[in-house]
Backbone:
């Protein structure tokens, strides 16, 4: 397990500036990220906050799981591989070693920019956490939650001088196979410095 540094909630640009500057980025430089940036991105997507977590969740069921896919030499002091974000501990758990960016890009219908991004954040859902409480209507609540999560990551990326885009075009079964997922993949966000 890799413990991440606590996020500094006093750093970054103002929220209105981040909203104004937010855009979808598909061209990334090969400049490596650092663990502090990773810490902030993952925390924004669903870490601990004053009133539980950084994103709202219907009935506090929290169906989302966040994975970090790291390319070779893409994050200082972090090996390439697939990591699960453990929000309770604000830590990463290595699930798979290796650089999966090329395979990930192929599973995303050949969107090559994914292979060039230093990291990607994969958001998955275990629907039963929410549907066991709300029935079929819970599915829409899961979709709302992935929207909250991805928007927070977008805005945090802007605040850190990085860029991202939400990718929804991929073969679900291929993504599940590559990363041996239990949950369903809903969104992928490649992240890096603008080219």
Residues:
């Amino acid at each position: 397990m890799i413990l991440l540094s606590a996020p500094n909630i006093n750093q970054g640009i103002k929220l209105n500036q981040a909203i104004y500057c937010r855009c979808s980025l598909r061209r990334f430089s090969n400049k490596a990220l650092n663990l502090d940036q990773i810490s902030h991105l993952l925390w924004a997507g669903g870490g601990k906050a004053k009133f539980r977590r950084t994103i709202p969740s219907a009935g506090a069921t929290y169906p989302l799981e966040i994975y970090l896919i790291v390319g070779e030499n893409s994050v200082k002091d972090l090996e390439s591989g697939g990591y699960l974000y453990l929000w309770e501990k604000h830590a990463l758990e290595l699930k798979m070693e290796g650089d999966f960016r090329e395979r990930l890009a192929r599973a995303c219908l050949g969107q090559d920019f994914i292979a060039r991004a230093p990291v990607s954040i994969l958001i998955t859902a275990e629907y039963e956490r929410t549907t066991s409480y709300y029935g079929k209507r819970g599915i829409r609540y899961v979709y709302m939650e992935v929207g909250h999560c991805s928007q927070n990551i977008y805005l945090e990326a802007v605040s850190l001088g990085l860029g991202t885009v939400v990718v929804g075009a991929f073969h679900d079964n291929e993504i599940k196979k590559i990363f041996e997922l239990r949950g369903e993949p809903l969104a992928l966000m490649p992240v890096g410095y603008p080219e």
Notes: The first strand starts at residue 2 and ends at 3. The chain has one domain: 16-192. The domain at 16-192 is CATH 3.40.109.10 (NADH Oxidase).
